[in-house]
């Protein structure tokens, strides 16, 4: 196995940051355990470097002419291995050693399309692209529809990504030698990223940092963003039962407790034994805006018309820590599954022995990873500087990793808040 070379640095001058990162990458490429001929680059940079995105991309292209494709974005902060850069000007870069037919750069003017299988790809699959890494502008009014449309163009319907920083223009990198110059480069806004075929051997997972309370319930009555009944009972009555306090008799205490409550919404049925005691990856968590005392309802910040189920939950650092460790442990276990069992991580199941899919009977290791976390998380939320990354590496080991802090996280086919989204690229252990 060859690990993906990476580098990261903070410096007020973007040129110096690039030089430091390049030196680290070249140093790792000279080591026997790292890939020496990667073809794909991913770069994340903080707001301070957004104005220099074009020059930064050109500098990386000059330093690594063998890299034929680049993707990336500006974030509210960036991260790499054990370091989080939330307030400093910083850059993190990783070079991925993947077969060229196993990925595709896409953007708004070079969109992802259903394509014939490229030469050398796995012919057993019904769709070339199985999943996608997505960088998106938070101001897109039709973002939910765009995510659904993009997911429909992948065989597994799995997206993972985040919203670019909104402090300046949400700059994104989407460059490929295979595309015409006007179709690739630096973009301001929109949606871009990387699509992967099964030959990329990627797994993804999400941690929502929530502790479920009570059972999952069916939404039996609602009007727009007001939940009226759950499992045939008044929604407010169910909430009061969960909080152990009534709104009409102790309004101040009930209001304080409600500030710490969220609801996880799901639109599809799932086997009750799956994700028992935790939220499913496809669940969407949102806060409570208030209550409707007259109708006995609960007010949400968005419409729940397309949702079928609801589960109350709480979000705190204890729950976030436990769920992050859970996600990493499940992912680690999936890399060395029992022979003949499906390979699964975070709800993405890969059929054992399918052509182009990781062999469930073969032990695998992580060659590189991309992690996208909410700006509301970070090390401070986990009790110490770089605490989130330290927990992640504690379970998965000292893996090559870069990522960014986002305004919202994309997992499955929808947008999440206060979550962490992890994409790992695996290789067979020799």
From TrEMBL:
It comes from the Bacteria. Residues 235-413 form the FIST C-domain domain. InterPro entries: FIST_C (IPR019494), FIST_domain_N (IPR013702). Residues 38-234 form the FIST domain. This is Small ligand-binding sensory domain FIST.
């Amino acid at each position: 196995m060859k690990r993906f070379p990476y580098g990261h640095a903070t410096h007020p001058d973007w040129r110096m940051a690039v030089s430091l990162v390049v030196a680290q990458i070249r140093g790792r490429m000279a080591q026997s355990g790292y890939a020496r001929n990667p073809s794909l680059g991913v770069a994340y940079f903080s707001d301070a470097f957004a104005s220099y995105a074009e020059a930064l991309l050109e500098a990386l292209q000059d330093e690594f002419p063998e890299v034929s494709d680049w993707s990336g974005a500006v974030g509210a902060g960036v991260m790499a291995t054990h370091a989080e850069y939330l307030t400093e000007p910083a850059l993190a870069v990783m070079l991925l050693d993947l077969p060229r037919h196993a990925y595709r750069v896409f953007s708004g003017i070079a969109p992802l399309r259903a394509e014939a299988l490229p030469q050398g790809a796995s012919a057993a699959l019904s769709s070339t692209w199985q999943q996608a890494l997505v960088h998106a502008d938070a101001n897109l009014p039709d973002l939910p529809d765009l995510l659904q449309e993009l997911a429909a163009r992948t065989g597994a319907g799995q997206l993972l990504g985040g919203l670019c920083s909104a402090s300046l223009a949400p700059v994104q990198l989407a460059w490929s030698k295979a595309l015409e110059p006007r179709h690739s480069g630096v973009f301001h806004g929109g949606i871009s990223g990387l699509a992967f075929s099964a030959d990329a051997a990627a797994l993804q997972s999400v941690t929502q940092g929530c502790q479920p309370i009570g059972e999952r319930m069916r939404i039996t009555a609602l009007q727009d963003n007001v939940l009226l009944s759950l499992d045939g009972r008044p929604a407010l009555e169910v909430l009061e039962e969960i909080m152990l306090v009534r709104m009409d008799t102790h309004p101040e205490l009930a209001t304080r407790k409600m500030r710490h409550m969220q609801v996880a919404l799901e639109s599809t049925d799932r086997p009750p034994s799956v994700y028992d005691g935790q939220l499913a990856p496809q669940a969407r968590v949102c806060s409570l805006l208030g209550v409707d005392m007259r109708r006995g309802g609960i007010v949400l910040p968005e419409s729940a018309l397309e949702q079928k189920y609801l589960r109350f939950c709480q979000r705190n650092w204890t729950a976030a820590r436990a769920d992050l460790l859970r996600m990493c442990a499940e992912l680690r276990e999936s890399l060395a599954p029992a022979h003949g069992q499906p390979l699964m991580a975070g709800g993405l199941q890969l059929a054992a022995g399918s052509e182009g899919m990781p062999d469930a009977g073969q032990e695998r290791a992580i060659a590189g990873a991309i992690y996208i976390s909410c700006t509301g998380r970070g090390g401070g939320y986990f009790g110490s500087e770089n605490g989130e990354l330290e927990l992640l590496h504690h379970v998965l080991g000292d893996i090559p990793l870069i990522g960014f802090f986002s305004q919202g996280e994309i997992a499955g086919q929808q947008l999440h808040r206060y979550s962490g989204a992890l994409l790992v690229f695996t290789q067979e252990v020799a």
